[in-house]
Amino acid sequence: METFTQPKITGYRQLSEAEVALMNEGKALAEACGAYIEKLRTHANTSFGVPAGAVQVDGMPTLDQRWISIGATQLQQGFMAVIRGIAQPTTF
Q1: What is the pTM of this model?
Q2: Percentage of the chain modeled with pLDDT above 70
Q3: What are the CA-CA distances from residue 80 to residues 26, 28, 29, 74 (Å)?
């Protein structure tokens, strides 16, 4: 396998192959979570802030999109934190 030397980015270091593999694994997990969130967002024609099971659209209970959005944001923050933990940037 050819070794890739990434251009110098201020505040970042060259990652080892193991670290790159961990980062790619995390990115794949984030994509899977993103697909799940999209599935929840398109589950039914939903109304903002309606509790799950309170209203049905086409026989399917609506999902509380407010909480789904909160979960999506927190998942994104979590994956960003994990990736930062792998990359270990030296800048703010």
Answers
A1: 0.73
A2: 76
A3: 9, 13, 12, 10
